[in-house]
Design goal:
Pfam families: DUF1328. This is UPF0391 membrane protein ABW22_09875. Keywords: Cell membrane, Membrane, Transmembrane, Transmembrane helix. Belongs to the UPF0391 family. With 55 residues, the protein is mainly alpha-helical. It has one domain. It contains two helices and no strands. Helix 1 packs antiparallel against helix 2. The longest helix has 28 residues. It is elongated, with a radius of gyration of 14 Å. 7% of the residues are buried.
Length: 55
């Protein structure tokens, strides 16, 4: 989950450098949502004492 957030953040930074404001804003928004969702899932798993499934 955090890997996807970092990917969208990098896309947003690159799009911002090249002047694609709409794409940069969308990618940054997606990165924020994925980061928050990943953080919530992490905290829930931390509180319940469960581990994520092994890959």
């Amino acid at each position: 989950m955090f890997g996807w957030a970092v990917t969208f953040l990098i896309v947003a930074i690159i799009a911002g450098i090249f002047g694609f404001a709409g794409l940069a804003g969308t990618a940054a928004g997606i990165a924020k949502v994925l980061f928050v969702v990943g953080l919530v899932v992490f905290l829930v798993l931390l509180v319940t004492g469960r581990r994520p499934p092994a890959l």
